[in-house]
Write a structure and sequence with these properties.
Blueprint: E1 11-13, H1 21-34, E2 44-52, E3 57-61, H2 74-85, E4 91-100, H3 113-125, E5 131-136, E6 141-144
Parallel strand pairs: 4-5
Antiparallel strand pairs: 1-6, 2-3, 2-4, 5-6
The structure holds tetrahydrodeoxyuridine.
Tetrahydrodeoxyuridine is lined by residues 39, 42, 44, 46, 62, 64, 71, 73-75, 109, 111-112, 115.
Length: 164
Amino acid sequence: MRSVKKEIEFTEYDTLQDLINSDQLLLNAAIEIAHTAYAPYSNFKVGAAILLANGEVVIGNNQENIAYPSGLCAERVAIFHAGATHPNESISTIAIYAESDVMPVDTAISPCGACRQAIMEYRQKQTTPIRVILKPQQGKIWVFECISDLLPYAFDLKGLKKPN
Ligand code: THU
């Protein structure tokens, strides 16, 4: 018997200007699209911007519904948007931003379990990692080198996938 420890590493930045240029641009796209989120019930607006390997950016924001579970998080709106419109393009990075005018958002909001699982599907579909950038309205920015850092030991039963 032995105990096994897994460590998670990420980089913390104080300001948006400290990021590399391409990350700044992606985060700005996430910030912009957060403003038009449809979040009348939570007043918590989230924007997600995805950088594809071909340089294109695909965006999404949270879409709520009066029947609460029918709504969808920004991350899944964005990743499904990317999957639908660019099915053969690898995903390099997803930037996620959250804001609210009714509560402080001062620590990075990290994707819910369902969104981590949805992003992980695309990671398993491609050979390269998917970086994750998280920015709260105010506060430090966190950069993870791969979605697998946020979903360690993800379910990946190769036998479930039909060979191409
Ligand atoms: N939400 C997201 O869009 N992304 C997250 O990572 C967490 C939560 C949305 C869902 C809902 O519209 C609102 O934020 C409050 O939970």
